[in-house]
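STRUCTURE:
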């Protein structure tokens, strides 16, 4: 005979539930993973399983933002992270990461990249002599060494024209296996290039977003997908994107703030991140400053 289940009303269980919530709040202020951007973490309630769409015009810094966010999630939460790239090569993405960490400009790092990448896990070119490099490279090498523990959690995967969502999920599973992890943080740059038979971009967005959201929920992971604003919509209200990808859990739209940019030294840019859809938290706007030379975003209070 089956064991009898003791039923309790919501009212009877209310006190124990409130105590449970109180215990959880004492542990952390947000539900999901820390982003490294305090205001963004608060508004999102942290990074949770689901699909995050990041949309913005060309040259707005979307790739740099996505890579920085992914790196910060890996570093602050100790979780594996995987960056899928259709456009930029591993070398360029690694240089961006080290520019942000060291405070040395991308172009300066490129001049000695053969030496630098030795410290990032790539064999050192024999013709480069450490004595020929500027003193600032000691700082860069130290930054790379300090980042090694969380860099061991991160992967960059170069995609091809044949890469589809099924292939991406296979590689996510492989990272989970390698790191013995139940969850990973995933970013997909230029996700409009995912193999898809729909040529029209608006319909393609809805299809890709739907498949990625299903993958995120099936794997119980967060996926940050970067989508370009290639048409005249860049002058339209950011809220239009909420209707174009109804399956996304969070939609972030990046726009330039021309008035604030006038106060900055070129080519530095003032950027507004519009949270136009957010199932787990608040909607609103956040201000950032983007420093292209260092591939770095700084959140502004």
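SEQUENCE:
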């Amino acid at each position: 005979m089956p064991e009898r289940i003791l039923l309790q009303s919501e009212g009877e269980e209310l006190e124990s539930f409130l105590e449970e919530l109180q215990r959880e709040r004492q542990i952390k202020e947000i539900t999901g993973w820390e982003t490294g951007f305090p205001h963004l973490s608060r508004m999102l309630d942290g990074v949770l399983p689901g699909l995050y769409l990041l949309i913005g015009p060309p040259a707005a810094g979307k790739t740099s933002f996505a890579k920085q966010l992914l790196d910060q999630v890996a570093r602050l939460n100790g979780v594996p992270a995987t960056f899928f790239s259709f456009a930029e090569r591993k070398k360029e993405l690694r240089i961006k990461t080290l520019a942000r960490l060291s405070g040395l400009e991308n172009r300066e790092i490129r001049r000695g990249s053969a030496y630098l990448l030795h410290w990032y896990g790539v064999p050192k070119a024999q013709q480069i002599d450490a004595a020929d490099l500027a003193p600032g490279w000691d700082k860069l090498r130290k930054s790379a060494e300090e980042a090694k523990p969380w860099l061991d959690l991160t992967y960059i995967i170069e995609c091809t024209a044949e890469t589809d969502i099924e292939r991406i999920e296979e590689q996510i599973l492989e990272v989970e296996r390698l790191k013995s992890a139940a969850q990973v943080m995933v970013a997909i740059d230029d996700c409009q290039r995912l193999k898809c038979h729909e040529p029209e971009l608006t319909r393609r967005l809805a299809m890709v977003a739907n498949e990625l959201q299903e993958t995120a929920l099936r794997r119980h992971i967060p996926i940050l997908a970067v989508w370009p604003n290639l048409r005249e919509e860049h002058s339209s209200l950011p809220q239009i994107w909420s209707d174009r990808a109804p399956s996304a859990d969070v939609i972030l739209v990046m726009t330039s703030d021309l008035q604030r940019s006038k106060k900055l030294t070129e080519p530095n840019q003032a950027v507004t991140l519009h949270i136009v859809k957010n199932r787990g938290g608040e909607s609103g706007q956040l201000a950032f400053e983007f420093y292209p030379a260092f591939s770095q975003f700084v959140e502004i209070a």
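REMARK: The chain has one domain: 32-252.
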